[in-house]
Design a protein that fits this description.
It contains two helices and twelve strands. The N terminus is likely disordered.
Length: about 150
Amino acid sequence: MLSFSTHVPVYVGRVPREVNPSHSLRELPFISLPVTYHRRVVIPVASILFLEADNNYTTFVLEDGQRLLLSKTLKTFLPDLNDPWLVRLHKSFVINLRFLDYYDAEDGQVRLSDGQRVPVSRRKRKDFEARLRDLMHRNDPVPQVA
């Protein structure tokens, strides 16, 4: 994980990364998160397991189990998280479909690879199911983080 010791403006960039030797370089999105007033952490968007909102705070939970609590609303981060695998399921949750383990349509919940259960709101259920079908029928492999 990369971090900055000086103040850096909010940055979401694309860093080239070779995915397959037979392919040309592909881009992997990163996001810079302000963890303190003078310190930012840069993480790959693909490593985000889920985001959870609690009033004016957002918790980023990463695939390695690390949790980053930030004093900004979830809505503030959504424009910067420009990744088709990230889906908002509820007013308080955004999940990464790369880590989706199970979807229970009757119960209206998803289970992530770490065992976390996240509710799917009634308003967002149809959009979520359509997005899930779309991603399942694409021929693109699920991008992995090195």
